[in-house]
Amino acid sequence: MKDSKQGQTPIEDLAELRSYFATHNTFREYIAHSSKVHSVGWSCDGRRLASGSFDKSVAIFNLERNRLVQDSIFRGHTGSVDQLCWHASNPDLLSTASGDKSVRIWDTRSHKCAATIATKGENINVAWSPNGSTIAVGNKEDLVSFIDTRTYKVVVEEQFNFEVNEISWNNTSDLFFLTNGLGCVHIMTYPTLELQTVLKAHPGTCICIEHDPTGRYFATGSADALVSLWDVNELACLRVFSRLEWPVRTLSFSFDGRLLASASEDHIIDIGDTETGEKVAEIPVQASTFTVAWHPSRYLLAFACEDKDPPERKRDAGNLKLWGLPNSG
């Protein structure tokens, strides 16, 4: 198997995947923030990992072979950084959504804030269209604002009359997806925002949604503790992952679409095989996990838990972890 800076060769066989992770299940922990980490994400070239925190800052790490090295800390938000999203093809640009009623664009090469866009409410979700032209941001009042990245201005706002949870684009940027409190996935055309269809995906609140990098699947995670895997073209549910026992908060697909990581308040992160639904591996954790992100070309998973600092375990630790490292160290 090729395992270089360029990436890995996908593994086809379930038994091979399991044996690979039997020898690559070590993790390293890094101190990133002074309070809990809400969101982690990789740049498109896989060279940088960003984390956003309740402490209002954004940390940038460089991946050097099998370890993360802190590069910089971005400050400027005056509220919690709740979600971040990198540009799909420019590895230097990062967007962050904050409770301070703004979205910021950061240039990791110049270490500067490239733009600050004022929005109408406390933001909780952000999604950058794969073609790079638009950033969508959702707030606590279920208003979704669309920002033109050429002008850094809000070009359209859509108010929903139900609880909007996570938002996402398909890989061709012409469909916009959102999950809601009624267990549904709403799919709209973009840029016209005409409702195409409503999928009744779960009996409980539909919390998170993720599209796979190959464009075959999307997955939804729900308060019913289930993860559903969907065929993008047929809009048919292919299989359900049911190994977690708590509401599913976060999902991530591996670069080849083969692995789906899902996490919750369970003290494991589940790694499932999208082709069979079988468990490939599980990562033991000490606390609830609210963000996971597979590397864009390697079987490396970044994640952050609601860990507490020892010894009193009263204060939130702002740590992030990297899993999938070779056991030999």
Describe the structure.
With 329 residues, the protein is mainly β. The chain has a single domain, classed as Methylamine Dehydrogenase, Chain H (7 Propeller), CATH 2.130.10. It is 3% helix and 52% strand. It has a four-stranded antiparallel sheet with strand order 1-28-27-26, with no helix packed on it. The chain has a four-stranded antiparallel sheet with strand order 2-3-4-5, with no helix packed on it. It has a four-stranded antiparallel sheet with strand order 6-7-8-9, with no helix packed on it. The model has no long low-confidence stretch (mean pLDDT 95). Residues 309-318 have a biased composition (Basic and acidic residues). InterPro entries: Tex1/THOC3, WD40/YVTN_repeat-like_dom_sf, WD40_PAC1, WD40_repeat_CS, WD40_repeat_dom_sf, WD40_rpt. Keywords: Repeat, WD repeat. Residues 309-329 are annotated as: Disordered. One of its GO terms (cellular component) is THO complex part of transcription export complex.
